[in-house]
Amino acid sequence: DVKVTQSSRYLVKRTGEKVFLECVQDMDHENMFWYRQDPGLGLRLIYFSYDVKMKEKGDIPEGYSVSREKKERFSLILESASTNQTSMYLCATLPGNRRQETQYFGPGTRLLVL
Amino acid sequence: DQQVKQNSPSLSVQEGRISILNCDYTNSMFDYFLWYKKYPAEGPTFLISISSIKDKNEDGRFTVFLNKSAKHLSLHIVPSQPGDSAVYFCAASENTGNQFYFGTGTSLTVIP
Q1: What's the whole-number mean pLDDT along residues A70-91?
Q2: Among B22, B82, B103, B111, which residue's beta carbon has the most beta carbons within 10 A?
Q3: Measured between alpha carbons, how far is A38 from A87 in angstroms, rounded to an integer?
Q4: How many CA atoms lie within 13 A of B32 on its CB side?
């Protein structure tokens, strides 16, 4: 059974703070993703990684960075949090042999930036 | 530009009736389509998928239909149950990539 965990379920931060969101998976999947979900906008891809130390920008990378030092861990970093980054953040994984496969999601982190 | 669209933000259905959720896409290179279900404060969970070589896939109460010429897919839930109340996202991907493109979601409410 695939397990994707995220470091926090709820987080409150102040404008300008550096924020780390961590995602850990236990299924040895090559691909990992960070999305944000906002009402009326669905899931938007921020960054993804297809291998250790590899990263690709998604549709909305501005204001974010990522780190993948180990295969099982993918971190999302908000260098200087802003109120428009208040959102639900979702991590997902996907096996390397991705044909006809589904993504597996973590429970999400609801971030509030004051 | 949104490549996957769900034009109905919400849908209400009586328990026992059919729920039909719709999704349109613009990219003709998409060859794999999925539906996810999401409860509040939880991550999306996979529901059902369909490959572009098929036009229908069924799994219990859930059936997905794909009309490639119209670039349209739909999810049918029969019979609808109150536990089906959730937000449903459709998603699509291309054979050559590992990126999934999601719609904006449809919030389904099944009324007991």
Answers
A1: 96
A2: B103
A3: 6
A4: 15
- pLDDT tens-digit readout, A64-76: 999 999 999 999 9
pLDDT of residue A97: 67
- Residue of chain A minimizing CA distance to B44: A105
- Give the separation between CA B88 and CA B6, rounded to whole angstroms: 10
Kind of pairing between the strands at B106-111 and B10-14: parallel
The phi-psi region of residue B105 (left if phi > 0; otherwise alpha if psi is between -120 and 50; otherwise beta) is left
Per-residue pLDDT tens digits for A20-29: 999 999 989 9
Q: For position B96, what pLDDT does the model report?
A: 72
Q: Cα A74–A79–A82 angle (5° rounding)?
A: 115
Residue count of chain B: 112
Contacts A33 to B, Cβ<8 Å: 100
Q: Which residue of A43, A108, A110 is in closest CB contact with B89?
A: A43
Tell which B residues from 45 to 104 touch A, by Cβ distance under 8 Å.
45-46, 49, 51, 89, 91, 93, 95, 98-100, 102-104
CA–CA separation, A6 and B41 (whole Å): 13
Give the whole-angstrom CA distance, residue B107 versus residue A82.
28
